[in-house]
Amino acid sequence: MHPELYLKSALGALLLTALYIVFGLLLGFEIKWGNSFWALLSNLLVALLLAYYIIHSSRSGFRLGLEVFLIYFIIGHFNILIEAYIFNVTTRSQTLIEMVRGLLVALAFCPVYTYMVGNDSLQAPRQLPHRSILSWSWRVVAADTLYLFCYLTAGLLLSIFYPRLLEFYEGKLPALGLMLQTQFFLRGLIFTGIALLMLQAMTLSLSRKAVLIGLTFSVLGGIAPLIPPNDLMPAYVRLGHGIEVGISNFVFGIALTYLLGYRPRKKNNASQAEFSRKTV
Predict the structure, then answer these.
(1) Reported pTM
(2) Is residue 225 part of a domain?
(3) Host domain of residue 234
(4) Which of 158, 182, 250, 269 could connect to 244 by a Cys-Cys bridge, CB 3.0–4.6 Å?
């Protein structure tokens, strides 16, 4: 990124932190000023990631601001809070109030930050391949299955190599059926929908899209929200989940990008004619 964007990202992090404080006070949250450094660090990661998306998007104006809002709120708030609720980390009222704060922050931040970063790109997006409904359908089902596999594998490995985490979740784990349905029919579909949105808008090559989508799922959907200390999760739980979600979401994002966006290269007619001539 251009050096100017680092400054804009820093200003975006300050704005995001200020909005969290303002809306937190309005909604009755206790503000712990000692956590400000960690909040700024978390929000700087968010701002850097969103800035990179903004400058490499083919969208502009209201539509770009709306897409940034959807990416930030859905991945960085909604999807995380749903997970926290079904694992009994948050109560229903805590989930709702956190959802409201996240929504207000995202609504205030995303349009301002999109305008602040700016996007002068005139490049057209690299369109998704044209596929039949059947072709898209099996890819969406495969994407959901892939997410469930990554999710369960990461959770299993974490419980094996970091058994201390199980102490925190003792008595909190949801029924297996509820957990699987939530991951497959809700969170997996949400990730897939956001990936399709980003794939359609970005002007990057497929490999760079894969890295950015992986980082979006990893940073917004796991690492950044787990950096600031909070009363809901002790430090050792946040550390374990940060590593687990950071890796699994990144791997899933890259694999998902290729599943949805890869198109085989077509041989040109001249090459095919030359091949046919040589085989005659």
Answers:
(1) 0.90
(2) yes
(3) 3-265
(4) 158
